[in-house]
Specification:
The structure is a homodimer. Chain A is of the alpha/beta class. Chain A has 12 helices and 12 strands. Chain A has 3 domains: 46 residues, 434 Repressor (Amino-terminal Domain) (Orthogonal Bundle), CATH 1.10.260; 127 residues, Rossmann fold, CATH 3.40.50.2300; 130 residues, 3-Layer(aba) Sandwich (Rossmann fold), CATH 3.40.50. The structure holds a DNA duplex.
DNA sequence: TCACTTTGATAAAACGTTTGATCAGACTCA
DNA sequence: TGAGTCTGATCAAACGTTTTATCAAAGTGA
């Protein structure tokens, strides 16, 4: 923990000289000889600028917070990777926090956002974040960018092309010959769920065959998937295929199908939105739509960076690379 | 972003007075009247002490880093929860980092550990962390506590009772009547894998029936599980049951069993170490040994806290609550 | 009344960094 | 030679906190 003073003492110069040299101040006038003494001294003491000193001086911490609903969720892993790599390149450190810790009255919001710890916030809103908590996060003074979600009256969202995802998954099933296709969706209040429903309807509408619409809105967790499947199978004419709006929910669907004695894909085709390592390890392996989550993370950082530097930012959709169908073994033509 | 100065100005007192009152300085002599003026002013300005100012003053950031091999891994989710809650109670904020970012030559180590950003480090060493990277993390000046792992010559580890876990899982299978029980383990270099093997052997040794030992050491990932099962099924006398040292690996085992046409649990019983939400959503649902990962996290924070306050700390094992068998549907008596 | 203590408050330094202002000495040019 | 410019470096202030030392006024006891 050597300081500028230590380096200066060793090199026999003033603190300012050291600071100028080590921060590559272009306007600094310092002779080659002293410059070398300084860099040598810094190296031998293994000098690193003190974080708190800088933060105080600049009133900027070079830390951004990434708040996600659930760290466990494999879907977020790619997002986090994108955020971390983008942040690293721009000189930021990422402070990861769980949304459930962000209680409106709780200490976490103040601690994280109110003490100047973080310069900005990337916020991925989960299904189960209370409106109140969201409000108190958005009204905090920290520049914020919403990732994978939108909020009425809030500008600065980065989202995926969920319409395309819903459409692509549905078209895959239509292409296999299915006509009774249900959508097992997230909560109706969620923006991503609404968008995926739009895509689903678009695909159904385009289909020449009469394909009735059937949607459940129970959420993105395994349990929600189980509940939805049970509900759908109680229909007079149950679906022969389902689009599941989330891979975790789809895992629940597969489990419940076993319980109900429904064979996948022979009796029921399942395609899920989002790809993760889990998809290869279910039985049967899940057909999915891979979304550019890594790029979403990177773009989120870029957008936050722009906002931190005073630029006006608009809502954007990360459409590159486009959602991509990964056909595995959970989808097949309907039984004759 | 009100400062002490702002509050002082509003209350018409000095900065020192404000600091004393707001930090509950017991030795402070200040009249009730001014005390009230100060607290009122602070409240109306929504004052929060600036993080950087404090960090500079105390040369302490009140941040601890938690470095884990893989954020996606559901096994770590409980650990993280324990760490975060423990940290919160002790007034610390958790900075989560991925071990793979900690490259020896890379910038991340310096950035995180060398700039005074974090007071201490909780380090969960993964299978695939290079020895070199581990060394450079341990030689950093930050007080460090190893979680769920040990390192030769390093004192300050908090681990689980992996021997008991291995024993418990094996005894469950023995109790069902199995005699050909294999252990699908982690890498041989890993401490946890070695411990689980010890427990496995203990259980086999105690069994009256002749139960030969059979172990694979391919790692904790799904792919390792798949590889191990294929290998075991090539044996002259393949096992009728397997202890899988990790739940993620066990998911791979289940998948590979489907591919090989082996029915679980009729032809092969599977029990895994560690419980997670995924266990309930495999087919069949996985019998597991639940380990006290939450408590491990909390204890890790406690230990680090002690080390930060200059106390000598020894290696400890978190044995409470004890590993607990969760019988689901992946285990059954051997076929007659 | 004088010496002394108590009360209630403030001044100032320090943590480590950056940067505008300053300064001494050497050089340039008329 | 004297005025001005350039060079190479240092001084000092500021960011927001905490805390030791200081201080004025009021109270206490003989």
């Amino acid at each position: 923990m050597a300081t500028l003073g230590d380096v200066a003492a060793l090199a026999g110069v003033s603190i300012s000289a050291v600071s100028r040299v080590l921060s590559n101040d272009a306007s600094a006038r310092v002779s080659p000889a002293t410059r070398e003494r300084i860099t040598d001294a810094a190296k031998s003491l293994n000098y690193r600028p003190n974080f708190a000193g800088r933060a105080l001086r600049f009133s900027r911490s070079n830390v951004i917070a990434l708040i996600v609903p659930d760290l466990t969720n494999a879907v977020f892993a790619e997002l986090m990777r994108g955020v971390e790599e983008g942040a690293l390149e721009r000189g930021y450190v990422v402070l990861l926090a769980r949304a459930e810790d962000m209680q409106p009255g709780g200490e976490m919001i103040d601690r994280l956002l109110g003490e100047g710890r973080v310069d900005g916030v990337l916020l991925q809103v989960g299904d189960h974040v209370a409106q109140e908590a969201l409000d108190s996060m958005l009204e905090a003074p920290n520049p914020t960018v919403l990732v994978n979600s939108v909020h009425p009256g809030f500008s600065g969202s980065v989202t995926l092309d969920d319409v395309a995802a819903g459409r692509l998954a549905t078209e895959h099933l239509l292409g296999l010959g299915h006509t009774r296709i249900a959508l097992i969706n997230g909560l109706e209040t969620t923006y991503t769920a609404q968008q995926r429903a739009v895509g689903y309807r678009e695909a159904l509408g385009r289909a020449s065959a009469a394909a009735p619409e059937r949607i459940t809105w129970h959420g993105y967790e395994p349990r929600a998937g189980r509940m939805s499947l049970t509900e759908l199978m109680g229909d007079a004419e149950p679906p022969t295929a389902v689009v599941v709006a989330n891979i975790n929910s789809a895992i629940g669907v597969l489990g419940e199908a076993r319980v109900l004695g429904i064979r996948v894909p022979e009796e029921l085709s399942v395609v899920a939105v989002h790809d993760a390592w889990t998809a290869e390890n279910t039985w049967p392996p899940l057909t999915t739509v891979k979304m550019p989550l890594y790029e979403l993370g990177r773009h989120g950082v870029d957008t936050l960076y722009a906002r931190l530097h005073g630029e006006e930012i608009a809502d954007t959709v990360v459409a590159e690379p486009a959602p991509e169908l990964r056909v595995r073994e959970s989808t097949a033509p309907p039984a004759a």
